[in-house]
Design brief:
Layout lengths: L3 E8 L5 E6 L9 E8 L2 E10 L2 E4 L6 E8 L2 E9 L18 E8 L12 E8 L3
Antiparallel strand pairs: 1-7, 2-3, 2-8, 3-4, 4-5, 6-7, 8-9
Length: 131
């Protein structure tokens, strides 16, 4: 809508799911990451910044309209995120500019909701933000 990016993901896992946005050559380092999981039975998320091969929680998360559920071996995560990332959080880019190409990184754990556990699968895809 010019201000927010709206995302919907479905993965064949029973665990946590993470999505990150970065430059096309950036990978996880400097990526803006959203980690979705269940805290007991309640949907929860953490907004992190990639730091090398690790990541750390940012002080001012910007996720809006978050949803996360696991049903029958499928994790579903939906959220909206502003195209301009929070300032001063250590991201390698300031946001997602319509018409520009970026990399979406994706990671998940097949069975654990503990976001401190290393992912069991990961992948990436380049995308362009539609104007």
């Amino acid at each position: 809508d010019g201000d927010y990016l709206y995302l919907h993901f479905e993965l064949a896992v029973d665990g946590w799911v993470s999505v990150g946005f970065n430059r096309t050559v950036g990978g996880m380092d400097g990526a803006n990451m959203i980690l979705g999981y269940l805290d007991g039975a309640s949907p929860a998320y953490r907004n992190d910044a990639g730091r090398g091969r690790n990541h750390a929680e940012i002080e001012s998360p910007a996720v809006d309209q978050f949803y996360f559920a696991v049903d029958g071996g499928t994790a579903i995560m939906e959220f909206s995120y502003p195209l301009a990332f929070p300032e001063g959080q250590g991201f390698s880019l300031e946001g997602l500019t319509p018409g520009e190409q970026y990399t979406l990184i994706l990671a998940a754990h097949s069975s654990s909701q503990d976001i401190d556990r290393t992912h069991s699968s990961r992948g990436s895809a380049n995308f362009t933000v539609e104007p």
